[in-house]
Amino acid sequence: MSDPTIMPLQPMPEDWHRALAVVAHPDDLEYGCSAAIAAWTDAGREIAYVLASRGEAGIDTLEPAECGPLREREQRASAAVVGVSVVEFLDHRDGVIEYGTALRRDIAAAIRRHRPELVITLNHRDTWGGVAWNTPDHVAVGRATLDAAADAGNRWIFPELTEQGLEPWNGVRWVAVAGSSTPTHAVDATPGLERAVRSLLEHRTYIEALTDQDTEHYVREFLTAHAEETGQRFGGKPAVSFELFAR
Asked: What is the pTM of this model?
């Protein structure tokens, strides 16, 4: 049997126009897949961001009331770098986001509003490749997004959404999970890598709270090394990987 960790990654589908990225916090997409998003917006595709929280519990030295608005501003600036102008926040509490019907309903509502063919989220499993423990927020939002992609198309799940004018949307064809330890597909990161660096640098306040390293050096090294490692399974080109689930 072939080892899935060394099998070549397949190109992501290209026959779609709209995508919705759903993650827990500001910076989740920038650490994971913004080089791919830059390439997609360059090609004329429409991508919107939905964040479950404002990341208000993410910086120990800042009170949530101050941190939340700051991180929201950084996220909007970061999204703009890669061509994304629509950024929405669901206002679940950072650090204690719960998987359940409330979260599924909010994400299903977002899917009905934006009507994407591709939904993007972050690693929903307990660990990062069996090495580091994942956060409960990532697990909850990733799992709820996978479920909400189906919920959005069923008028009898969350019928109150239909009453609010959000008609069912059964057009999600794929859910792509970034940061997966078992990726199946990839996107050439070369055209978008420099903008991915600039996009992550917009989260400067958060990054400076994480590391004592020079911020730009840390960001560039992190994203470049990750893209080059992924590229070893994608024809030697720097790449962003996804685990793709078809619906």
From this structure: 0.95
